[in-house]
Amino acid sequence: MKKFLYICAAAVTAALLTWMSYPSVTARAESLSGTEDIIEIATPDQLVDIRRAPSAHYRLTADLDMGETNWLPLPFNGTFDGDGHTLYNLRVLQTGHEVRTTADGNLKPYDTTFAGLFSTVENAAVSNLHLTGAEISVQNDGSCFAALLAGYVRNSTFSGCSVEGCVNMISKGVNVGVGGLAGYGISDFDGCRADATLFFEDRRTGSRCEQFMGGLLASGTGHFTDCMIRIDGYDSCHGYVHNGGLTGMYFNGEPDWRAGRVNRNFVEGQISFFEDNPDRRAYCAAYIGERLDPPIEMTDNSQQFTRNESTDYTTVLRPEKCDEPQYRVGVTPPTCTEWGYTTYLCQTCGHTWRESFTPPRHIKPHWETVIPPTTSKEGLRRQTCTACGALLAEETLPPLPEKSSGIRNNLPIAIWLSPAAVLLATGGLLIFRKKRLRKPASQK
Asked: In angstroms, rounded to a whole number, what is the distance separating the alpha carbons of residues 62 and 175?
C-alpha cells in the first residue's frame, strides 16, 4: 500500500510541474500567427541579412542608426514595408556588385554599376520607408548611376517613401547619372518625397559623357504621381547634360516602350550646371530635361525652379561659394517631434549642411496609475511625456491577490480536482483508520 501511495504522489508532482512549465497550444499558435511570410527588421545587422533572401517580404519595426555600418548596396526583388520608420545616417562609399545594362538616348548599351541603399530593385514593392541624413559618395571609371534609395529600378513600385540627403559622384565614365530617389530605370513612384543635394563632376577626357540628373529619377520612365521634390543640383559636365527637377531624361531604354503619367507633382529648387561641349544641347528644365518616347500624360504639376547655367568651364560647380570655407558647428538636440542634428555653417559664404541625425524622443516618460486595481477588478496605468503630455503607452494592472492562509489556497485547484490527488487522500485516510483499529500486542 505504501509503495502505491508513493507512486501516486510522484505522478501528481510530475503532472503539476508539467502543467506549470509547458506553454499552451493556443499561446504557441498566437506567437506564430501572421509571421510566417513577413520577416521583421529591428537592427542594422538584420537589414544587412536581406541579401541572403532578397525576394522575401520584410517589415521595418524601428528607426535604425546606420552610422556605424559599412554599407554595401544590395539587390532587392521582394516587398519592403518601412511601416513609417526611418533609416538615418546611412553612408555609402561604394557601388554594389550587380551589373545591369543601361542605355543612352540613342539606345546604345552600357554595362553599369549602381550605388544607393539598394543597388538594384526589380519586380519589387517598397513602401513607407524614410531615409534621413543619407550620403552616397562614389568615384567611378565606368558607367554608373547613384541615388539615395536605389541605383537601378525595374518594374517596381515606390509608395509613401521619402529621402533626405546628398549624392556625390566624381566620374570618368560614359553613361552616368545621379538621382534623388532612384538612378536609372522604369518604375512607378506614388506619394514620394525627395530633399536632395546632387553633385556631379565629370573628369572624363578624350570623349564626351552622357550625364543625367533628376530630383526623383536620373533617367527613365514610369508613373510619377503626387510627389514633392526639393533639389539643389550642381553639374560640371564636358559632355552632354540631361537635367530635370523630376528626371533628366524621360524615356525607356528598352524595346518595351511604355506610356507614362506625370501628375500632381511639385518641384522646387535649382540646378547649376555647365555643358563644356561645342555641340551644345544643355537640357535642363523644371520637370523633364529631355523628353523622348514613350508619350507622357502631364497634368496639374507645379514648380518653383531655377535653371542656372554657367559659361565658366574652369571652375567645378559646388554648393560652397568660397575656396576655403570656415565652418561653425552647432548641435540641435531632438525634441518630442523633431529630429536632432549637427549643423555646419560657413561663416564666409553661408553654405550649410546637416549630419549626425538623432531621432525624436520624449523627455522623461512618466507612469501614473489612473485606476488602482482591487481584488475583484483590474487597474489601469498610463505613460505620458512630461514635456509635451503625449500619451506613450497604456496597460492594465492585474487584480490584487486575495489574502489567504493554508497550503490549499496556495496550490492550483487542478491538484485538488485531479483523480490522483483524490486517490492519494483516500489512501491516507485508510491507513490512518487501520492504524487506529489495530490493537497493541499487550492487549491481545
From this structure: 37
CATH code (residue 86): 2.160.20
Count CB atoms within 10 A of the CB of residue 63. Answer: 17
Whether the model clears a pTM of 0.85, i.e. scores above it, the answer is no
The partner residues of 244 in beta bridges, in order of sequence, read 214, 285
In a domain? residue 4: no
User: Is 22 among the domain residues?
Assistant: no
Least confident of 16-25, 68-77, 84-93, 174-183: 16-25
Alpha carbon 99 to chain centroid, angstroms: 24
CB atoms within 10 A of CB 378: 12
Q: Same domain, yes or no, for 50 and 149?
A: yes
CA-based nearest residue to 275, from 244, 249, 241: 241
The average pLDDT across 327-339 equals 91
Does 296 share its domain with 385? no
Other CB atoms within 10 A of residue 403 CB:
7
Per-residue CA distances from 279 to 212, 284, 309 (Å):
17, 15, 16
Are 383 and 377 spatial neighbours (Cβ–Cβ below 8 Å)?
A: no
The answer on 354 and 327 residing in a single domain is yes
Tens of pLDDT, residue by residue over 277-309, are 888 889 999 999 999 877 789 999 999 999 999
Domain that holds residue 343: 321-361
Angle, CA of 327, 236 and 219, to the nearest 5°: 110
- Rounded distance, CA 390 to CA 366, Å? 11
Together in a domain, 329 and 389: no
As a whole number of angstroms, the longest Cα–Cα distance in the chain is 135
159, 121: one domain: yes
Give the chain's domain count.
3
User: pLDDT of 367-396, one tens digit each?
Assistant: 989 899 999 999 999 999 888 888 989 999
Q: Are residues 331 and 387 in the same domain?
A: no
Pairing state between β 365-371 and 379-385: antiparallel
Per-residue pLDDT, 324: 82
Reported as a single tens digit per residue, the pLDDT across 265-278 is 999 999 999 999 88
* One-letter identity of residue 397: L
Quote the pLDDT of residue 117.
98
Helix and strand totals (H; E) in the chain: 5, 36
